[in-house]
Amino acid sequence: MTKKINLPITDEDIKNLKAGDSVLLTGKIITGRDAAHKRLLELLEQGKSLPVDLRGEVIYYVGPAPAKPGYAVGPAGPTSSYRMDKYTPALLDLGLRGMIGKGARSQEVIDSIVKNKAVYFAAIGGAAALIAKSIKQEELLCYEDLGTEAVRRYTVKDFPCVVAIDCEGNNVYNRND
Amino acid sequence: MDIRVINASEITAAVKKLFMDCNYFIGKDILDSLERARENESSPVAKSVLSQIIENDRIAAAEEIPICQDTGMAVLFVEYGDKVAVDGDFEGAVQQGVREAYEEGYLRKSVVSDPVFDRVNTRDNTPAIIHTKIISGDKIRITAGGKGFGSENMSAIKMLTPAYGAEGVKQFVLDTVKAAGPNPCPPIVVGVGIGGTFERAAQLAKKATFRSIDTRNPDERYAAMEDELLEKINEMGFGPAGLGGKTTALGVNIETSPTHIAGMPVAVNICCHAARHADVEI
To answer: Domain boundaries in chain B?
Structure first.
């Protein structure tokens, strides 16, 4: 069964999501990957405020390809999440509620997901042309100089993903250990 | 001796087409294998993931847009005939072809100028990695691919010694695939390079990922090793997208080289299901 979630995601939504659930997300998400995470954490370490408010947000780890004329966005599949692990607990502590990426996370991230009652979704790696069909609009938020790694806001409709780690720490990848 | 002269612009045009084609059109070997895998899977999640990957590849080809947003670092294996002269700068012509493909083909520019300190995007996806071998003849053959780094990062090399034997080789390949787990966008293609020196093994492993998965190593001992490794990898259960299933890999390709009496280097280059490569003869 596929669960439909309207964003912003609520505490109730998160509580009801179980690892392995198929989900379609509709609403607004933000994007960010390696270079943007590094910058955000540098600002936090300097005690400065962030250029984007993460409270209540779901972040998508993506660096899209350029959009062809007539397309809202270019192909935009998930990138490997583990590279963001070093930065993730601090962002969850700031109020980030969800992440979309692909692949396994560190124990520190899993612990932080449980502590903050958050959720980690996995999208299908390498299904970028298909996933882009569910992204209807994009808007630049900050770090334009990072090109594909800039932070953007996406408006999505029925964005397909799977609950990979739920708020109780159940992990869809554990079966392979 | 007759020397055939090829204009540099011809090289540029051919390279540009290779990178656009390989990023839009998945190989028939991969697509057929994905379809067989979907038939073979019993879990609904695995079947669904494979259906979405097949649908993705169909959309990319029909609309001529990249299969994956990571359109890769450009890698080329060039076999350069010794009776060919390029009228102009060969290396420059190749880099220009890459530049034009990534700029005009709506491919992502994913290369940074300095690996550690600056990490500033070069904005045209150059420089490409070019492996050149001089062969006899008056042709230039190029095999090219865009290598995504989700899977590249999961690759490994080990300087095994002769006493490890075939079992040691197989164990290292399996250990590498197991450590990669769900991260490299399974179902994967595994390229294995055995022998040579440190760098030759790695180069062979990359070359192996550019070989069709419908082919087998011509030496039946290595062909058997390819089959055995594929079976063992698929018993690991990572499955499509790492969400569980029987299809963790679509193929294992082994390439070998003579090596030193003291050594048996083994390199494992992992490639995602978007195993992009294309060939041309000029």
So the answer is: 4-24+67-147, 149-280
